[in-house]
Design goal:
InterPro entries: ABC_transp_permease. Keywords: Cell inner membrane, Cell membrane, Membrane, Transmembrane, Transmembrane helix, Transport. It is found in: Cell membrane. Part of the ABC transporter complex LsrABCD involved in autoinducer 2 (AI-2) import. Probably responsible for the translocation of the substrate across the membrane. Its main location: membrane. The chain is an all-alpha fold. It has a single domain, classed as ABC transporter involved in vitamin B12 uptake, BtuC. The strands form 2 sheets. The protein has a two-stranded antiparallel ribbon with strand order 1-4. A two-stranded antiparallel ribbon has the order 2-3. A hairpin with a 2-residue loop joins strand 2 and strand 3. Helix 4 packs antiparallel against helix 5, helix 9 crosses helix 11 and helix 13 runs antiparallel to helix 14. It starts with a helix and ends with a helix. 42% of the residues are buried.
């Protein structure tokens, strides 16, 4: 009996230690603590409508952060996602206003394809030009935004220009969740499975961890990075369509400034800014945490300046924690290698 117990015990300790080291754990604890403290100060914070608003506010950011995770894992970044969302959102409004009777599924398909094309532009420029993604996507951010300004001009499309069924995606609920939030959850689950359970997903981590080693192992780095940008563009396109369903109006300024919040959500959620580690689940939790912070501070009537300052502190803290963890891991591996050599 004692032998059996000793054989079973180590895996339990291993699973527990693995859980405690999970990058998503601190974000989850912070989120639970934030919600609990805010509810204690203002019980209306978790009223049915308040909870629904929290989920709706986080939905778009969750999808964008999940897509951004695919790019950051490969040691890249996409600063143009806000502009892509803006273009697709305005295009969605334009379709409903100018194409009578267009099916909602067709609008989703067109929006996702539109986003994929813009993401592919980023991917091609990054992989073919060999210029850092930060520079490339900073340029396309302004290009896409300029195109949207030219296209939209002073035109805005409002809720009355879209079908009621489309607007209902942000109003109707299923199992207590808004439908667009369920779409975001499905996106996160699918991407999480793809990253953990497919060769393509594991290749992205390998590229971010050590590009030189990944190349030696025969991984097509350029192709994988291109598809990461392509998938990110598709998700930004999906987010753009859902944005048009969620908000009352879309126009030339839609999506402005969202890119920094998206990167912040991914980093706060445990996605290493230096690439090679992190998860879409963590990014989704990071997006939920940031939007909840904004909602909580608003409920507590905290000045907007302090809301932004707190988000900035969170980003710096997440980066520092990630850096410290990386250094500790490197030292541990070095110590282990030295021990093996002595043996």
């Amino acid at each position: 009996m004692s032998t059996t117990t000793s054989q079973i015990a180590p895996p339990r300790r291993s699973r527990l230690s693995g859980l405690l080291r999970a990058r998503e754990l601190p974000v989850s604890i912070a989120l639970i603590a934030l919600v609990g403290l805010t509810y204690a100060a203002n019980p209306l914070f978790l009223s049915p409508q308040g909870t629904k608003d929290l989920l709706l506010n986080a939905t778009i950011m969750i999808i964008l952060a999940a897509g951004q995770t695919l790019v950051i894992i490969t040691r890249n970044i996409d600063l143009s996602v806000g502009s892509i969302l803006g273009l697709v959102a305005f295009g969605t409004g334009s379709l409903f206003a100018n194409v009578e009777g267009i099916p909602i599924w067709a609008v989703f398909a067109i929006g996702i394809v539109f986003g994929a094309v813009l993401g592919a532009v980023n991917g091609l420029l990054v992989t073919l030009a060999g210029v850092p993604a930060l520079v490339i996507t900073l340029g396309t951010l302004y290009i896409f935004r300029g195109v949207n300004n030219w296209w939209a001009g002073g035109t805005q499309y409002f809720a009355d220009d879209r079908p009621d069924a489309f607007g209902g995606l942000a109003v109707d609920t299923l199992f207590g969740f808004p439908i667009i939030t369920l779409i975001a959850i499905v996106v996160v689950v699918v991407l999480a499975v793809a990253l953990a359970g497919t060769r393509a997903g594991r290749d992205l981590y390998a590229i971010g961890s050590d590009p030189a080693a990944a190349r030696l192992f025969g991984i097509a780095i350029g192709r994988r990075v291109f598809f990461a940008f392509l998938a990110n563009g598709m998700l930004a396109g999906l987010a753009g369509v859902l944005y048009a369903a969620r908000f009352n109006s879309v126009g030339a300024t839609t999506g402005t400034g969202m890119e920094l919040n998206v990167v912040a959500a991914a980093v706060v959620g445990g996605v290493a800014i230096f690439g090679g580690s992190g998860s879409v689940v963590g990014a989704g939790l990071g997006a939920l945490l940031l939007t909840t912070i904004t909602g909580a501070l608003t409920a507590l009537r905290v000045d907007k300046f302090w809301q932004q300052a707190i988000v900035g502190v969170l980003i710096l803290t997440a980066i520092l924690i990630d850096r410290v963890a990386s250094i500790r891991t490197a030292r541990r591996l070095k110590t282990g290698a030295a021990s093996e050599e002595k043996k």
